[in-house]
Amino acid sequence: MKILVFSDTHLTHTFEPNKFELLKKIILKADRVIINGDFWDGYRTTFDTFIASDWKRLFPLLKSKKTVYLFGNHDRKSFMDKRMRLFSDTQSETFILRINGKNFIFEHGNRISPLLDESPLMPHFLNRITTRIAGFALKNISFLQFLHKRMNVIIKSKMEKRLKRDDILLCGHSHYPEIDLKHKFVNSGYIQNGKAHYLIIEEGKIIAKKEFYPKT
């Protein structure tokens, strides 16, 4: 079985045809799909407008792959309703697959390394503003991009003693793709701004993939 794992697509109500074609292609090639959080962005759109957008063309494809949907910090369970079943069969904070004697533990990562937006004291409108500013800065100011890698380091440090011998933690959240099996840690990366990082799991082997698509 070929399992596709992707995260951090941060879809909004704005449709991106080239990104759609990339997602369609990799979904169709898989036998099963796991979305590891931040599929859509609740700080930049609403659930109503997202599911009514042209991104709904992905939904039948995802349903056909019995998609597992893990919540992230930008697409929290509280941001949605039962219509999440339009594009997924299973919805959870954590999902575990037992493959070839290993426990593949899927979780977005925000519960392990929370950001400011996780604070109950942070108003939703302020999160929307800071999300846009942070996204622009991290994309365009190169020396700030070390923060992505730093988040992976934090997650590994926090989980080191919690993971058992046969466990592998697979996260998103940091937007920094990485396979570090020595520390039982994998990050699926992101699909945004013309870059697509994702994972394929086949016969227990984890393969990191990277593609480019034309930005619109």
TrEMBL record:
Signal peptide: none annotated. It comes from the Bacteria. Pfam families: Metallophos_2. Residues 1-193 form the Calcineurin-like phosphoesterase domain. Coiled coil: none annotated. Belongs to the metallophosphoesterase superfamily. YfcE family. This is Calcineurin-like phosphoesterase domain-containing protein.
